[in-house]
Amino acid sequence: MEMDGGGYKITPTIKGSLKPVQNRVLVSHMHFGEQKTAGGLIIRSDDGETRGIYPRWGKVYAKGPTNKDAYEIGDWVLVEHGRWTRGIDMVQDDGEKLTIRMVEAESILAVSDEKPDDVILGKEYNDGQGVDIDPSQFVNAE
Fold first, then answer.
1. Residue 124 CA to its chain's centroid (Å)
2. CA–CA–CA angle 58, 60, 65 (5° rounding)
3. Which of 32, 84, 91, 123 is 20 to 30 Å apart from 98, CA to CA?
4. Measuring CA to CA, how many Å separate 33 from each of 42, 44, 48, 69, 70?
5. Rounded Cα gap, residues 33 and 9, in angstroms
């Protein structure tokens, strides 16, 4: 486990793989970093601030044994704001480093089989006109 200069623990790093229990879901590739506007301005990370409160997309890494939901490993899921754990850095056998977060199945709002590159909720910084995506359009009406 890495330590910062003050002796505090940084995100733990493990080697190998993780398996979720029950119907939990493990996701990777959630975006929390800086954003860049169309004009080239860099907006610092907004996580934990009012403007950073929005659902986020993540890629399904693994599903628990009792999870019978329609999405599969590799699909992209939209997770309700704040309904994920802190990340655990994992080094896979091929050397790739992933940050994995646990999500409860009930917190998944939508599913996509393609990476939603052009859909970042909260991208109001890109057009200066306010929020341009209505999160309700991602909710499954079934």
1. 19
2. 140
3. 123
4. 10, 7, 12, 29, 29
5. 20
Residue type at 62 in one-letter notation: A
Fold of domain 13-126: 10 Kd Chaperonin, Protein Cpn10; Chain O (2.30.33)
Report pTM.
Answer: 0.67
Would you say 63 and 73 are in contact if contact means Cβ atoms under 8 Å apart? yes
DSSP-assigned states of every residue in 6-65? TSPBP--EEES-----TT-EEEE----S-EE-TTSPEEPP-TTSGGG-S-EEEEEEEE-T
Q: Report whether pLDDT(64) > 60.
A: yes
Q: What DSSP state is assigned to residue 118?
A: T
Paired with 58 in beta bridges are 77
Which residues pair with residue 43 across a beta bridge? 35
- Token look-up 């006109």 returns 129
Give me the residue spans of the domains in the chain.
Answer: 13-126
